[in-house]
Amino acid sequence: MLRVFSLRRVAAVLALSSLGLATPAAALNLFSPQQDVEIGRRAAADAERRLRIVRDPVAEGYVNAVVQRLAAVAPGPRFAYRARIVDSPEINAFALPGGYVYVNRGLLGAVRSEDELAGVLAHEISHVAERHGTSQASKAYGAQLGVGLLGQILGGRNNRLSAAEQIVGGLGLNALFLKFSRNAESEADHVGAATMARAGYNPLAMASFFDLLAAQQRSNPGAVSRFFSDHPAPANRAAAIRAEAARLSAGRRAPVGGLQMVQARLGGQAQRASGRTARLGTSRSRLGF
Asked: Is the pTM of this model over 0.85?
Protein backbone atom coordinates (compact mmCIF):
# COMPACT_ATOMS: atom_id res chain seq x y z
CA MET A 1 0.00 0.00 0.00
CA LEU A 2 1.12 3.56 -0.57
CA ARG A 3 2.25 5.43 2.48
CA VAL A 4 0.02 8.35 3.49
CA PHE A 5 1.66 11.70 2.76
CA SER A 6 0.38 15.23 3.17
CA LEU A 7 -1.35 16.01 -0.11
CA ARG A 8 -0.24 19.61 0.35
CA ARG A 9 3.40 18.46 0.49
CA VAL A 10 2.98 16.32 -2.63
CA ALA A 11 1.38 19.18 -4.53
CA ALA A 12 4.14 21.57 -3.45
CA VAL A 13 6.93 19.27 -4.61
CA LEU A 14 5.21 18.61 -7.92
CA ALA A 15 4.74 22.34 -8.41
CA LEU A 16 8.42 22.98 -7.71
CA SER A 17 9.36 20.23 -10.14
CA SER A 18 7.16 21.71 -12.85
CA LEU A 19 8.82 25.09 -12.36
CA GLY A 20 12.28 23.53 -12.63
CA LEU A 21 13.29 24.63 -9.13
CA ALA A 22 15.92 22.69 -7.23
CA THR A 23 14.63 20.11 -4.75
CA PRO A 24 16.49 17.33 -2.95
CA ALA A 25 17.08 14.33 -5.20
CA ALA A 26 14.70 12.15 -3.17
CA ALA A 27 12.43 14.92 -1.85
CA LEU A 28 9.28 13.03 -2.83
CA ASN A 29 8.83 9.29 -2.71
CA LEU A 30 5.40 7.67 -2.64
CA PHE A 31 6.82 4.18 -2.21
CA SER A 32 8.13 2.25 0.76
CA PRO A 33 11.53 0.52 0.74
CA GLN A 34 9.67 -2.80 0.52
CA GLN A 35 7.99 -1.55 -2.65
CA ASP A 36 11.40 -0.54 -4.02
CA VAL A 37 12.35 -4.22 -3.74
CA GLU A 38 9.20 -5.41 -5.51
CA ILE A 39 9.46 -2.80 -8.26
CA GLY A 40 13.15 -3.61 -8.73
CA ARG A 41 12.46 -7.36 -8.84
CA ARG A 42 9.89 -6.93 -11.59
CA ALA A 43 12.04 -4.48 -13.53
CA ALA A 44 15.08 -6.78 -13.20
CA ALA A 45 13.10 -9.74 -14.54
CA ASP A 46 12.07 -7.65 -17.53
CA ALA A 47 15.63 -6.40 -18.07
CA GLU A 48 17.12 -9.88 -17.92
CA ARG A 49 14.70 -11.13 -20.57
CA ARG A 50 16.19 -8.58 -22.95
CA LEU A 51 19.84 -8.47 -21.92
CA ARG A 52 22.51 -11.12 -22.49
CA ILE A 53 23.75 -11.99 -18.98
CA VAL A 54 27.23 -13.45 -18.55
CA ARG A 55 26.96 -16.88 -16.94
CA ASP A 56 30.31 -17.06 -15.16
CA PRO A 57 30.02 -17.77 -11.42
CA VAL A 58 33.66 -16.80 -10.77
CA ALA A 59 33.36 -13.38 -12.41
CA GLU A 60 29.93 -12.75 -10.92
CA GLY A 61 31.16 -13.87 -7.51
CA TYR A 62 34.02 -11.38 -7.64
CA VAL A 63 31.77 -8.44 -8.58
CA ASN A 64 29.30 -9.41 -5.86
CA ALA A 65 32.08 -9.60 -3.27
CA VAL A 66 32.95 -5.96 -4.04
CA VAL A 67 29.25 -5.02 -4.00
CA GLN A 68 28.72 -6.66 -0.60
CA ARG A 69 31.74 -4.90 0.88
CA LEU A 70 30.29 -1.55 -0.22
CA ALA A 71 26.69 -2.44 0.69
CA ALA A 72 27.73 -3.30 4.25
CA VAL A 73 28.58 0.38 4.87
CA ALA A 74 26.13 2.05 2.49
CA PRO A 75 23.44 4.32 3.96
CA GLY A 76 19.71 3.82 3.61
CA PRO A 77 17.56 0.70 3.88
CA ARG A 78 19.26 -2.68 4.20
CA PHE A 79 18.53 -3.87 0.68
CA ALA A 80 19.78 -7.31 -0.42
CA TYR A 81 22.17 -6.04 -3.10
CA ARG A 82 23.22 -8.37 -5.88
CA ALA A 83 25.06 -7.80 -9.16
CA ARG A 84 24.91 -9.32 -12.64
CA ILE A 85 27.34 -8.90 -15.55
CA VAL A 86 25.88 -7.84 -18.89
CA ASP A 87 27.60 -9.21 -22.00
CA SER A 88 28.11 -5.85 -23.70
CA PRO A 89 31.41 -4.23 -24.77
CA GLU A 90 30.15 -0.76 -23.84
CA ILE A 91 31.51 0.91 -20.72
CA ASN A 92 28.41 1.30 -18.58
CA ALA A 93 26.58 0.19 -15.44
CA PHE A 94 23.14 0.78 -13.94
CA ALA A 95 21.09 -0.16 -10.91
CA LEU A 96 17.41 -0.74 -10.22
CA PRO A 97 15.46 -0.04 -7.02
CA GLY A 98 15.86 -2.55 -4.23
CA GLY A 99 19.51 -3.40 -4.94
CA TYR A 100 19.69 -4.87 -8.46
CA VAL A 101 23.05 -3.81 -9.96
CA TYR A 102 24.23 -4.45 -13.54
CA VAL A 103 27.78 -4.00 -14.83
CA ASN A 104 28.75 -4.31 -18.48
CA ARG A 105 31.60 -6.61 -19.45
CA GLY A 106 33.17 -3.61 -21.23
CA LEU A 107 33.37 -1.67 -17.99
CA LEU A 108 35.01 -4.57 -16.16
CA GLY A 109 37.58 -4.74 -18.93
CA ALA A 110 38.24 -0.99 -18.81
CA VAL A 111 38.81 -0.38 -15.09
CA ARG A 112 42.45 -0.35 -14.04
CA SER A 113 42.00 -1.35 -10.41
CA GLU A 114 39.48 -2.75 -7.98
CA ASP A 115 39.21 0.74 -6.48
CA GLU A 116 38.00 2.12 -9.84
CA LEU A 117 35.46 -0.68 -10.09
CA ALA A 118 34.38 0.04 -6.51
CA GLY A 119 33.90 3.69 -7.48
CA VAL A 120 31.42 2.76 -10.23
CA LEU A 121 29.62 0.27 -8.00
CA ALA A 122 29.49 2.72 -5.07
CA HIS A 123 27.90 5.33 -7.34
CA GLU A 124 25.22 2.87 -8.51
CA ILE A 125 24.62 1.55 -4.98
CA SER A 126 24.14 5.14 -3.84
CA HIS A 127 21.36 5.65 -6.39
CA VAL A 128 19.65 2.62 -4.81
CA ALA A 129 20.37 3.66 -1.21
CA GLU A 130 19.06 7.18 -1.79
CA ARG A 131 16.06 5.69 -3.64
CA HIS A 132 16.48 7.93 -6.68
CA GLY A 133 14.64 5.55 -9.02
CA THR A 134 11.34 5.43 -7.13
CA SER A 135 11.61 9.11 -6.25
CA GLN A 136 11.89 9.87 -9.95
CA ALA A 137 9.00 7.54 -10.71
CA SER A 138 6.91 9.17 -7.96
CA LYS A 139 7.27 12.57 -9.59
CA ALA A 140 6.40 11.20 -13.04
CA TYR A 141 3.52 9.16 -11.63
CA GLY A 142 2.11 12.10 -9.68
CA ALA A 143 2.46 14.49 -12.61
CA GLN A 144 0.57 12.08 -14.88
CA LEU A 145 -2.23 11.39 -12.42
CA GLY A 146 -2.73 14.92 -11.20
CA VAL A 147 -3.27 15.90 -7.61
CA GLY A 148 -6.93 14.84 -7.52
CA LEU A 149 -6.43 11.18 -8.43
CA LEU A 150 -3.21 11.08 -6.45
CA GLY A 151 -5.22 12.17 -3.43
CA GLN A 152 -7.63 9.27 -3.94
CA ILE A 153 -4.77 6.80 -4.05
CA LEU A 154 -3.12 8.29 -1.00
CA GLY A 155 -6.47 8.14 0.76
CA GLY A 156 -6.74 4.42 0.06
CA ARG A 157 -9.70 4.59 -2.34
CA ASN A 158 -7.84 2.99 -5.24
CA ASN A 159 -5.87 0.18 -3.68
CA ARG A 160 -7.20 -2.85 -5.51
CA LEU A 161 -3.80 -2.93 -7.19
CA SER A 162 -0.63 -2.57 -5.16
CA ALA A 163 1.55 0.45 -5.87
CA ALA A 164 4.19 -1.86 -7.33
CA GLU A 165 1.68 -3.35 -9.79
CA GLN A 166 0.47 0.10 -10.80
CA ILE A 167 3.94 1.49 -11.37
CA VAL A 168 5.18 -1.51 -13.34
CA GLY A 169 2.08 -1.37 -15.50
CA GLY A 170 2.24 2.34 -16.30
CA LEU A 171 4.44 5.37 -16.71
CA GLY A 172 6.40 4.67 -13.56
CA LEU A 173 8.42 1.75 -14.95
CA ASN A 174 9.63 3.90 -17.82
CA ALA A 175 10.42 6.64 -15.32
CA LEU A 176 12.83 4.29 -13.52
CA PHE A 177 14.99 4.31 -16.65
CA LEU A 178 14.98 8.02 -17.35
CA LYS A 179 18.24 9.90 -17.09
CA PHE A 180 18.77 10.96 -13.48
CA SER A 181 18.88 14.66 -12.68
CA ARG A 182 22.23 16.37 -12.11
CA ASN A 183 21.21 16.71 -8.48
CA ALA A 184 20.76 12.94 -8.15
CA GLU A 185 24.03 12.22 -9.98
CA SER A 186 25.93 14.64 -7.73
CA GLU A 187 24.36 13.07 -4.66
CA ALA A 188 25.33 9.57 -5.86
CA ASP A 189 28.91 10.80 -6.39
CA HIS A 190 29.03 12.36 -2.92
CA VAL A 191 27.44 9.39 -1.10
CA GLY A 192 29.42 6.91 -3.21
CA ALA A 193 32.77 8.52 -2.36
CA ALA A 194 31.93 8.39 1.36
CA THR A 195 30.81 4.75 1.01
CA MET A 196 34.10 3.88 -0.70
CA ALA A 197 36.11 5.44 2.11
CA ARG A 198 34.15 3.55 4.78
CA ALA A 199 34.67 0.29 2.86
CA GLY A 200 38.44 0.84 2.71
CA TYR A 201 38.67 1.93 -0.93
CA ASN A 202 40.33 5.11 -2.17
CA PRO A 203 37.57 7.56 -3.22
CA LEU A 204 40.03 9.28 -5.55
CA ALA A 205 39.64 6.21 -7.78
CA MET A 206 36.13 7.38 -8.67
CA ALA A 207 37.68 10.58 -10.04
CA SER A 208 40.38 8.63 -11.89
CA PHE A 209 37.64 6.57 -13.56
CA PHE A 210 36.07 9.78 -14.86
CA ASP A 211 39.51 10.74 -16.22
CA LEU A 212 39.56 7.38 -18.00
CA LEU A 213 36.13 8.06 -19.48
CA ALA A 214 37.24 11.46 -20.75
CA ALA A 215 40.24 9.84 -22.45
CA GLN A 216 38.02 7.12 -23.94
CA GLN A 217 35.63 9.75 -25.25
CA ARG A 218 38.49 11.32 -27.20
CA SER A 219 40.02 8.10 -28.52
CA ASN A 220 37.06 5.70 -28.80
CA PRO A 221 33.77 7.59 -28.35
CA GLY A 222 31.63 4.61 -29.33
CA ALA A 223 32.77 2.69 -26.26
CA VAL A 224 31.38 5.31 -23.86
CA SER A 225 28.46 6.76 -25.84
CA ARG A 226 25.89 4.87 -23.76
CA PHE A 227 27.50 6.00 -20.50
CA PHE A 228 27.38 9.64 -21.56
CA SER A 229 23.77 9.27 -22.67
CA ASP A 230 22.94 8.16 -19.10
CA HIS A 231 25.33 10.29 -17.04
CA PRO A 232 26.54 13.89 -17.02
CA ALA A 233 29.97 14.72 -18.50
CA PRO A 234 32.79 13.78 -16.11
CA ALA A 235 35.02 16.90 -15.99
CA ASN A 236 33.30 18.85 -13.22
CA ARG A 237 32.33 15.66 -11.40
CA ALA A 238 35.95 14.52 -11.17
CA ALA A 239 36.95 17.84 -9.61
CA ALA A 240 34.07 17.67 -7.11
CA ILE A 241 35.00 14.10 -6.13
CA ARG A 242 38.63 15.08 -5.57
CA ALA A 243 37.49 17.89 -3.28
CA GLU A 244 35.20 15.48 -1.43
CA ALA A 245 37.93 12.84 -1.12
CA ALA A 246 40.23 15.37 0.54
CA ARG A 247 37.71 15.69 3.36
CA LEU A 248 37.30 11.94 3.85
CA SER A 249 39.46 9.77 6.03
CA ALA A 250 39.30 6.01 6.35
CA GLY A 251 41.69 3.13 6.75
CA ARG A 252 42.74 1.24 3.64
CA ARG A 253 41.84 -2.43 3.37
CA ALA A 254 43.26 -5.13 1.15
CA PRO A 255 41.24 -5.57 -2.06
CA VAL A 256 38.96 -8.54 -2.59
CA GLY A 257 41.43 -9.51 -5.32
CA GLY A 258 40.96 -11.23 -8.65
CA LEU A 259 40.19 -8.40 -11.06
CA GLN A 260 42.87 -9.38 -13.59
CA MET A 261 41.71 -13.00 -13.56
CA VAL A 262 38.11 -11.88 -14.13
CA GLN A 263 39.19 -9.60 -16.97
CA ALA A 264 40.99 -12.52 -18.61
CA ARG A 265 37.97 -14.80 -18.21
CA LEU A 266 35.57 -12.24 -19.63
CA GLY A 267 37.93 -11.47 -22.50
CA GLY A 268 37.87 -15.12 -23.48
CA GLN A 269 34.10 -15.26 -23.18
CA ALA A 270 33.78 -12.16 -25.35
CA GLN A 271 35.83 -13.76 -28.12
CA ARG A 272 33.75 -16.94 -28.00
CA ALA A 273 30.47 -14.99 -27.97
CA SER A 274 31.64 -12.89 -30.92
CA GLY A 275 32.42 -16.04 -32.88
CA ARG A 276 29.01 -17.53 -32.15
CA THR A 277 27.26 -14.33 -33.19
CA ALA A 278 29.22 -14.16 -36.47
CA ARG A 279 28.46 -17.80 -37.30
CA LEU A 280 24.76 -17.52 -36.49
CA GLY A 281 24.30 -14.07 -37.97
CA THR A 282 22.30 -12.99 -34.94
CA SER A 283 21.76 -9.51 -33.55
CA ARG A 284 21.35 -8.46 -29.95
CA SER A 285 18.75 -6.17 -28.51
CA ARG A 286 19.56 -4.00 -25.54
CA LEU A 287 17.80 -1.81 -23.06
CA GLY A 288 18.31 1.90 -23.46
CA PHE A 289 19.72 2.77 -20.05
From this structure: no
